[in-house]
Design a protein that fits this description.
Number of strands: 2
Strand order of the largest sheet: 1-2
InterPro entries: RNase_H-like_dom_plant, RNaseH_domain
Organism: Gossypium stocksii
Order of helices and strands: EHHEHHH
GO molecular function: nucleic acid binding; RNA-DNA hybrid ribonuclease activity
Distance between the termini: 29 Å
Radius of gyration: 16 Å
Protein name: RNase H type-1 domain-containing protein
Strand content: 5-15%
Pfam family, one: RVT_3
Helix content: 40-55%
Length: about 100
């Protein structure tokens, strides 16, 4: 399962775009990658329902490292109950 908070992207990938589209090369590369293994599914996940991914993306901007593997949820996710909100599918306020 691949989730994205871009509904437009989730629609463009399965159907493709014209070769004059500015993101043609990127979209086609994604399509080729996903077609190698037909078990992938794309799903639109609104940002308001995916707080952990949003938090991780923002947190990554402040890090000066390459790949980071978490063996447990990072404190920032746990401290503000983002994981619980995502699991329950409820909105959560971030300051």
């Amino acid at each position: 399962m691949v989730e994205s908070d871009s509904e437009t992207t989730v629609r463009m990938i399965p159907h493709g775009v014209g070769d004059c589209h500015p993101f043609f090369c990127i979209i086609e590369s994604i399509r080729e990658l996903l077609n190698r293994d037909g078990s992938w599914r794309l799903k639109y996940a609104p940002r308001e329902e995916n707080f952990v991914a949003d938090w991780l993306g923002k947190e990554s901007l402040s890090l000066d490292r390459g790949l980071i593997v978490y063996n447990e949820p990072p404190p920032g996710v746990v401290n503000v109950n983002l994981l619980i909100a995502d699991t329950a599918g409820v909105a959560c306020c971030l300051s």
